[in-house]
């Protein structure tokens, strides 16, 4: 995979039932980017209407630079036709449930199925996220059964808490690395007319020895 002077953009969505904590998880992740001060307290968040957009840049293990375009989707059923229209344009999804809400866990297969039905099997990489892990006393989904579900669906599992800032970076890093691996192995392919992954080439500025080349510009 070419690295120097180039980077990728990965489009990733957070999917899951209403109020499982998708916005809080995403706000915590975006606030944790280098140079951004962490929020002092988890803010009271309003339910998402349709889809909202965020981004964060990442440097991967081998020096590859990735810009994550992050889509926060509404969990409520009445927005489903809007969120569905985004599935085809993403390469990764965090399937989020609330460890204190059994129903949200039971709906994970439906979320997965819905994306697969829209996208086809070779486009999306998933991560199962058990959120609100700080609420241990009211937990009703064990880590073991979540692991089993993740394995049966062919994805990794991470438990997170926006309140404790626990494993937030790990969740996004795990998904990003899995996308990178799928790309390197050819399981996912770059396609001109598909926005899930964009390859952004930043050409060098012309030096004395490159006078005949067209001056390049960064398209990011
Ligand atoms: N204890 C605890 N509460 C959380 C955590 N993350 C979010 N919450 C709370 O859960 C509630 C719902 O959080 P949101 O982030 O709005 O959930 P959402 O999944 O984006 O909801 P929709 O936009 O309706 O789909 C809010 O009251 C949050 O404060 C967490 O890690 N721990």
TrEMBL record:
One of its GO terms (cellular component) is membrane. It is a lipid-anchor. GO terms for molecular function: G protein activity; GTP binding; metal ion binding. Its main location: membrane. It is an enzyme of class 3 (hydrolase). Its EC number is 3.6.5.2. Keywords: GTP-binding, Hydrolase, Lipoprotein, Magnesium, Membrane, Metal-binding, Nucleotide-binding, Prenylation. It is found in: Membrane. PROSITE patterns: RAB (PS51419), RAS (PS51421), RHO (PS51420). It catalyses: GTP + H2O = GDP + phosphate + H(+). Its cofactor is Mg(2+). InterPro entries: P-loop_NTPase, Rab_GTPases_membrane_traffic, Small_GTP-bd, Small_GTPase. PANTHER family: DRAB11-RELATED (PTHR47979). The small GTPases Rab are key regulators of intracellular membrane trafficking, from the formation of transport vesicles to their fusion with membranes. Rabs cycle between an inactive GDP-bound form and an active GTP-bound form that is able to recruit to membranes different sets of downstream effectors directly responsible for vesicle formation, movement, tethering and fusion. The physiological function of RAB42 remains undefined. Belongs to the small GTPase superfamily. Rab family. This is Ras-related protein Rab-42. It comes from Orycteropus afer afer. The lineage of its organism: Eukaryota, Metazoa, Chordata, Craniata, Vertebrata.
